[in-house]
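Case study.
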Amino acid sequence: PTEIVACPTVREPDGLACSSRNVRLSLAGRAVAPLLHRALLVGRAEIEAGARSAETVRAAIRAVLDCPDNRVQGFLAAGHVCTVTGIRQYEPIAAQYRVPIVVTGFEPLDILSGILMCVRQLEQGTHRVEIQYARSVRADGNPAALRQIYEVFEPVTCKWRGIGEIPQSGLALRAKYALYDAQRRFDVGHVAVAESSECIAGAVLQGRKRPCDCPAFATRCTPEHPLGAPMVSSEGACAAYYRFRRHETKRH
Ligand code: SF4
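After joint prediction, the assembly is written out as follows.
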């Protein structure tokens, strides 16, 4: 067995980690490289110690569950996120809305296993938070990483494609890090992404419609020319329906 021994990072006087990669930085790259480390440390004393819950994901799940015509009965939570956040943030939601939440990995077998665990809970009438992705996720996550994230970022209102604005569902750099915020520093203005009026991604995400109910599915919207987020990456519902040619069969 291999034993991994963690030890403090050895740093240059300006905070840059002493690493074989960093010695290859150009002069310009070397000049800006320590900024990230400095950004993580600025204002550290002003932030309370202790992990913060991932309000962002909770807010989005609540928005789906509070929808009057919601049909979602259970959730597969993203395992890679929970590697940092842990699972505690989901426990009040599972209890309040009586929905099973299974923290699942991204490999095909992980997803099948996560669905099985979710269905078993539904059949048993239970509503717990379970970890399928146990090879990476611990119940309390990675408190040190979470502290660093909330030292630098704060929850803000964020627009979710197909759903709209959800309070406290996104992260933005705290004011004290404005110096490192490209949007503020370079005055690029408000960046808006236009959504196709045909796209029914919100209804798909809430389980009210299937991708093949969308008039643009597999015609004007394909993985090569996506009109909405669920068609962009392979794990998106519309991309998965397209990839496995569900539009060519009658059994949806
Ligand atoms: S098929 Fe395309 S346009 Fe239709 S809901 Fe999916 S992403 Fe949106």
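Observations recorded in class. DSSP finds ten helices and five strands in the chain. The beta strands are 75-78, 101-104, 129-131, 153-160, 164-173. We will return to this complex in the next lecture.
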